[in-house]
DNA sequence: CGTCCTCTTAACACCTGGTGCTAATCTAAG
DNA sequence: CTTAGATTAGCACCAGGTGTTAAGAGGACG
């Protein structure tokens, strides 16, 4: 321990270390933090209080909560993005804001399959059937989409012949068209 | 409470309900479970013991751990699935096992954009360039893929003209072709 | 020099969400 | 009727905390 340090400076350094440790591993308990920083558990508690750092269980709960919501949103929603308007069998509209985790590493450009997913899920949603599956698609990535861009997708059913629905989807960012696609979606009753 | 039920049947039903509740929300404590199921906390504890369900704190920790370490989902890896083989500018191969969160609700059929994402990311990976972006694609979903299916994707660069690369991707489950696609991928240097 | 103030550590009671154990009921099935 | 399984209860204990009070250990400063 740096005993030669002035008392105030030592405390400050410890606070920095504490923040770093907690950020690096939110699962660390006060006990572990105390032994890592060479002070008593009580000191850690006071430090956390000063710095507004919640206790380990809360930190863990938070991580779990975040992850749980996130997984749910990617996984469990039938439509990628927010469904704004839906006229079954006719047209539909959804909105999605591009986030950093949709981007290609370091470039800030959104990866194509996120646009595809948004368009595809909207195309499936607009079809008036219990279950609908995409049969084929032709898509064009017209312009690059970047982190923070607000994407608006519009789907229109252009043709129905039997179980086959042709759906046109366009995604815009502001006035710019960034994606267009034509989806052949099939209505299905049985699994 | 269903008092007319036979005791054993009641217990069985409660066990099913318990599993369902815990799966739906891992954050639920014994207290909450007890009141939801109309039995005492002790009964819940015994049930958890029988069913091998860990306590709430462990469940939360697990969720947090999972999220913290291996963020899977669509977003965070450069190639969706596991990249098995890669010959830059020529061909590539990846493998992905379909999980329940990729499926359409209740049907067990994997949603198309997961196949697209697997194929697209492989197509981008196979192109020999610092950064590559998909310009357009034509895809066919040949057969339904179900939860548990092991998908193998093969990508082959079929044509290069300037920065434009044409990549053919096929995904198979066992011997069956489930997806084919043709991707136009553009090599880019600047962002 | 003494005094004062901050930092640090300690001790105690309490909280939540559990575990392990023993014991008392109660019910249904043999 | 007897007995085994299901349910509930009470008790001591645990981890990882909170809040409070109290007591030393350094400085800083008149």
Main attributes of the structure:
6-stranded antiparallel sheet, Arc Repressor Mutant, subunit A, alpha+beta, 191 residues, homodimer, Thiol Ester Dehydrase, Chain A
Counting structural domains of chain A, the number is: 2
Question: Rg of chain A from C-alpha positions?
Answer: 25 Å
Largest sheet of chain A: 6 strands, antiparallel
Backbone structural class of chain A? alpha+beta
Q: Helicity of chain A, in percent?
A: 25-40%
Order of helices and strands of chain A: HHHHEEHEEEE
N- and C-termini, Cα separation of chain A: 66 Å
Biggest interface, which chains?
A: A-B, 46 and 45 residues
How many strand units of chain A? Answer: 6
Oligomerization state of this entry?
homodimer
**Would you tell me the overall average pLDDT of chain A?**
88
Number of helices of chain A: 5
Describe this structure in words.
The first copy, chain A, has 191 residues and is an alpha+beta fold. Chain A has two domains: 7-73, Arc Repressor Mutant, subunit A (Orthogonal Bundle); 80-188, Hotdog Thioesterase (Thiol Ester Dehydrase, Chain A, Roll). The first copy, chain A, contains five helices and six strands. Chain A has a six-stranded antiparallel β-sheet, with helices on one face. In chain A, strand 1 (82-87) and strand 2 form a beta hairpin. Chains A and B meet through helix 4, helix 5 and strand 3 of A and helix 4, helix 5 and strand 3 of B. The structure holds a DNA duplex (30 and 30 nucleotides).
Short description:
The structure is a homodimer of 191-residue chains. Chain A is 38% helix and 31% strand. Chain A has 191 residues and is an alpha+beta fold.
């Amino acid at each position: 321990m740096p005993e030669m340090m002035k008392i105030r400076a030592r405390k400050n350094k410890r606070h920095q270390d504490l923040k770093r440790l907690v950020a690096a591993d939110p699962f660390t308990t006060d006990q572990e933090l105390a032994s890592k920083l060479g002070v008593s558990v009580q000191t850690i508690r006071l430090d956390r209080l000063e710095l507004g750092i919640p206790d380990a269980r809360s930190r863990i709960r938070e991580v779990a909560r975040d992850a749980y919501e996130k997984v749910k949103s990617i996984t469990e929603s039938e439509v990628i993005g927010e469904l704004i308007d839906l006229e079954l069998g006719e047209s539909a509209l959804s909105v999605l804001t591009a986030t950093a985790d949709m981007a290609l590493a370091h470039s800030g450009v959104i990866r194509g399959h996120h646009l595809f997913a948004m368009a595809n899920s909207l195309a499936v949603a607009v079809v008036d059937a219990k279950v609908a599956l995409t049969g084929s698609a032709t898509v064009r990535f017209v312009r690059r989409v970047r982190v923070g861009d607000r994407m608006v997708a519009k789907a229109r059913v252009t043709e129905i012949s039997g179980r086959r629905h042709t759906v046109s989807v366009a995604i815009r960012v502001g006035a710019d068209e960034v994606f267009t696609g034509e989806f052949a979606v099939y209505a299905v009753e049985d699994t």
